[in-house]
Amino acid sequence: MNSSMPSRVTWLFSRELTIPLATSLIALAAWEVLVHAGFLRAAFFPPPTNIASTFLGLAVGGELWVHAGTTLGRLIVSFLMALIPGTALGLAMGWWIGMRLTADPLVKLLFPIPSIAFFPLVIFYLGLSEWGLLLTAAITPFLLIAVQSASAVESLERTLLEAGRNYGARGRRLFLRVILPAALPRLFIGYRLALGVGFIVTVAVEMVAGKHGLGGFLWHSWQILRIEEMYVGLMLIGLLGILVTYGLEALADRLMPWQVDLLRLKGQR
Amino acid sequence: MVRRQANWRVLVSPLIVVVVWELLSAAGVLRPNYVPPPSQLGPHLLALLAGGELWRHLSVTLYRLGLSFIFALVPAVLLGLSLGMSRSARLALEPLLTSLYAIPKIALLPLVMLVLGVNERTLIFTSTLTSFVQMTVSTMGGVLAVDRIVLEAGKNYGATGWRLFRYVLFPSALPDIFTGMRIGLSLTLVLVIAVELTAAQEGLGAFLWTAGQTFSAKNLFSAFIVIGALGLTLTYGLERIGNWLMPWRERSSAAMFL
Amino acid sequence: MAAVTKIEIRDVEHVYQSDFSSVPALASVNLTVNDGEFVALLGPSGCGKSSLLRIVAELLRPTAGSVQIYSSTNKDNGRPKTALVFQEYALFPWRTVLENVVFSLEMRGIPRAERLARAGDVLARVGLQGFRDAYPHQLSGGMRQRVGIARALAAQPEVLLMDEPFGALDAQTRTVLQEELLRVWENERKTVLYVTHSIDEAVYMSDRVVLLTARPGRIKAEYSVDLPRPRNMEMRGWNSYTKMSLDIWACLREEVETAMSHE
Fold first, then answer.
1. What ipTM was estimated for this complex?
2. Stated pTM of the model
């Protein structure tokens, strides 16, 4: 064991944490000062303290959590709608060449289409409904996951499969005990991408359609010129994004303890 | 792994889909007002293109996309390189960059509209920001991912200071920088179209939305096809360019999206 | 014939400092290497031999002590002091084999025609003439390391530094490449500092084996290898070879066990 592993406490005081924290606080303080001094228009950039109190007000009120919950719920549901069929299709495509020849061209044709473009098409048939929103947010992620899953299977090390077979794993057991774990890291890369896209689409559609959710809340606040509320919405959207990203990372770490730093956003060290 | 042996195979599935679609329409299963058959769609799309209206919308969208990308490219790469190379700069700007990266830029639109007004400038600003944030993060990641040992070799063989950067660090980071460009363009296109959907008169997104509002399935599909074609061209065109620019990259199909 | 000092390592110490801890890697290393000598640095894992090499290569600054490399002629002829051959090859993936090999020459501003000539010559010596335009990822491990060696030779360094160059290769390729390296080396008889953890490799290749202790590394012992050159496989069966290997192992074993207990 390396003698240089830092303890939790020391990390707390390390430069890694203190510098970003310090710069954030300084920036917020500067913002506050500039507004009060008149250099920043309060109408556009309300002081952080106002935003904070608005946030507290809304948080206590409860309305905010309904919106946040709605968006989060939509995100999770649409993600699952994409994940299960996508992984299934991708694995099938990776494993059976027949599946690959049929499905691959279609998937390759559809996934580069800007995800938001599906929205008008979907609501044309489903109307401006919750299903419409969920489906739109699920399409491109579904395709992305399929592509990544297929690739995950294709890039499996042959030797792993041979070892599995040689040590008695066949059929379903080979799949569950060898193929799936081996493919998992690559699968998760696809999931991360899909989640990112899904999040963007969810928020975009909420803003366009104005239907509850944080996107709707954001848009509505702007329309009635409640700017502090708009900032709160913005903040929450950002937090949700970070939460979801780290949540996925934590899940990845838990499921794949053998893979180090798989999903760490490149450069976020 | 099956390599590009027979390219014609790629067309089989889509063709089958088109044929089945046509047959279902002919059989009455799909109502033409709801789901126009390819045989009607094709001519309609061509007519729209010939008419010029669709071109106009396409060029507006392309203009917005291209402009934002060009505005963002150099500053983003420069900033990304600096952040990758300087730990203190990175730590200082990290909170801001991470926050911006985590927020779908469309969520920033109301704020920008507030400050800049509801106009073209706002759209360009927001889409430029989208490209900018993505390319900065990818570039920074590319620099940080450079294998230390390659840098050591560079130094040992005479590349110091600026030359280490030009001959070793930069080429090493180039694939990631390029990926950042590709992802940046995709995201920006999504943003542009999303904004065009409700907040613009012109542009493919606007045309698409109007088509839906006026219940013109033919227009809807036509617009969708053109947008799709744009997305396809960008994605695969850039891949081609990437392969030409960086022949040393190992061709792995899935690495495309990372 | 008087031995000319080529490398002088004096009282070198090195400690790795991080935000949380300091790890001593080298403690008071003193070593003199003569011109044309092939010296093997042998030691257990973590003994600092790679660090020492990087210090000699001026990639790392020691916390104490100095390293002096003497040039063959007294004036500055533009030749680099050292050239490193890495265990992981460290080739530039975006450059072809040829472009990798001429890198140092390019950095020195040597004109294109001359660069190509030298590269061609060196590539022929390592047997890779046919692969000038290939990219590293298209080559096998053994071939990549040949490129690494070619790159080092093309640089015409005063001293050749090799950090477990064949460590990543299979035993057969390793044996072949050891012989090839010696053959190529015989030509110019450059001064070589060769890091390895294989006793066999150290004895087979070198004129002198320098044994390092476990972390923090210092020189424990030195063995003079009196086998005639050019070396060949048969010598591995000689009594003197075996005896020396066993002696070294007896001395090294202690350090290896100490190093293992550190973990």
1. 0.89
2. 0.83
